[in-house]
Write a structure and sequence with these properties.
The protein has 456 residues and is of the alpha/beta class. The chain has one domain: Spore Coat Polysaccharide Biosynthesis Protein SpsA, Chain A, CATH 3.90.550.10. The protein is 40% helix and 12% strand. The strands form three sheets. It has a nine-stranded mixed beta sheet, with helices on both faces. A two-stranded antiparallel ribbon has the order 5-10.
């Protein structure tokens, strides 16, 4: 009897042990999916019939997932690749500075509207952004610059298939993808994020003496976003040959944005209104984070107010004059302990010697929308792009009669408490001196001569 009892206990313990192992495996798999920012889950979604119904048939090609890639669509971006080949491809594209469709739509002029789109790996969102851009009036007079921090042939093919305006690709050359085992990626000897200072000193890890203001060590994938934004702006204003004399507007979008068909029309109205009513307004803004929209009363209304990072960072627009002012304070941007580019700009805005904070003129009826339900700051497990996209499509369809107003009316606002609250400290993630140095060095790259590479 004792032997049987003992055997029963062993069986129970074995079953419990196996159960614990299974739970750990499932948790690891779940965390792995979350670490990929929900991209695998989101990219595997098919475009719903409801969404397709509101997309012109001739634009369905931008939403088509080719059969040979459909099975690998989610995981391909994370499979091992030859880093040397990717670096060579990136350098080749960056050196060439090729402008696709220039022969059809003409060369870039000094006042051409440039639309800079920051791209990571969220292909589904990018497809719908492109569809929305394709439907915008006067889009054929712009230059789209797609700035990538991940080299992926499926994304490249999508971008290069655009036939409705001029297109250029640029590639951030210091990415986590191209530096998987060294800075700016994660060096094996980098300090663990949550290591205490004493522990880090004992480990003798690379950045032991420089945790952020919250006591944490850098995480490459988060630091990359600020680096990429800063590199992209420097590249566009200071390094491309086609923008050497550019004085027009640069619109900053991201892969999970969606634009209204009259966003260029509204942009021109904002600029005209700023010239007449608010010459000190340095930033224009096409998007807001409102929960509800009343286009019948706000479509032709604009507001002048102090610029705030978390409210006015979507569809943000400025020109070379403003960039020059930002560049004068590059040390403040690069040294500020915050991994967010927009909060770093806010810090710069609030600490300009002898000058007021940035002022922004924005449309109260937004023309740029955020459709991203999955990403660095959104950890949903049921990421379905079609749900949000269809809501935005329906919203714009219902608002169609209120789009393209002939003029806008501006009101001046002092901003609420959030607008005017002085930043005391940043969000951290930027204490590592290597990040600060890389950021500063990006402004020292000279303008490159354009090389023409002909592809067979």
């Amino acid at each position: 009897m004792p032997r049987l009892k003992y055997a029963s206990i062993l069986r129970v313990l074995l079953i419990l042990g196996l159960f614990c192992v299974w739970v750990q495996i499932m948790l690891s798999a779940t965390n792995g999916a979350l670490d990929k920012d929900g991209e695998e889950l989101m990219n595997s979604n098919e475009t719903s019939e409801q969404v397709l119904a509101l997309v012109p048939p001739e634009l369905h090609k931008y939403l088509t997932v080719h059969p040979r890639n459909s099975s690998a669509n989610a995981t391909e971006r994370y499979s091992p690749k030859n880093v040397s080949d990717i670096l060579r491809a990136i350098q080749r594209v960056n050196d060439a500075q090729t402008i696709y469709n220039e022969d059809i739509f003409g060369p870039v002029q000094n006042d051409t509207i440039i639309i800079a789109i920051q791209v990571h790996t969220r292909l589904t969102y990018l497809r719908h952004l492109i569809v929305s851009l394709a439907q915008a009036k006067d889009i054929d007079r712009t230059l789209l610059i797609f700035s990538h921090d991940y080299y992926d042939e499926e994304i490249n093919n999508l971008v290069r298939s655009i036939d409705f305006t001029k297109v250029m690709q640029i590639f951030y050359p210091y990415s986590v993808q191209t530096h998987p085992l060294e800075f700016p990626g994660m060096d094996p000897n980098d300090c663990p994020r949550d290591a205490k200072l004493e522990q880090a000193l004992k480990l003798k890890c690379n950045n032991a003496l420089h945790p952020d203001l919250h006591g944490h060590y850098r995480e490459a994938k988060y630091a990359q976003t600020k680096h990429h934004w800063w590199w992209k702006a420097n590249r566009i204003f200071n390094q491309l040959q086609c923008t050497a004399s550019h004085t027009g507007m640069v619109v900053f979008l991201e892969e999970d944005h969606y634009v209204a068909e009259d966003f260029i029309h509204i942009l021109n109205l904002l600029r005209t209104t700023a010239d007449k009513t608010c010459p000190q307004c340095e930033i224009l803004c096409l998007g807001t984070y409102l929960k509800t929209y009343q286009y019948h009363s706000t479509s032709d209304k604009v507001e002048i107010t102090p610029w705030h990072s978390s409210m006015h960072n979507m569809g943000m627009v400025f020109n070379r004059t403003v960039w020059t002012n930002i560049l004068e304070l590059q040390e403040q941007f690069c040294a500020y302990d915050d991994y967010n580019w927009d909060y770093s700009l806010l810090h710069l805005s609030q600490n300009r010697p002898g000058r007021e904070k940035f002022k922004v003129i924005l449309c109260k009826g937004p023309r740029v929308f955020h459709i991203g339900e999955c990403g660095f700051h959104h950890k949903k497990s049921n990421c379905n792009a079609s749900t949000v996209i269809s809501k935005v499509q329906k919203l714009l369809q219902d608002a169609k009669s209120y789009l393209f107003p002939p003029r806008v009316t501006a009101t001046i606002s002092a901003g609420g408490a959030k607008h005017n609250k002085k930043l005391i400290k940043g969000n951290g993630g930027w204490g590592d001196l290597r990040d600060q140095e890389l950021c500063t060095n990006m402004t020292r790259v000279e303008r490159q001569m354009r090389k023409y590479i002909y592809y067979t």
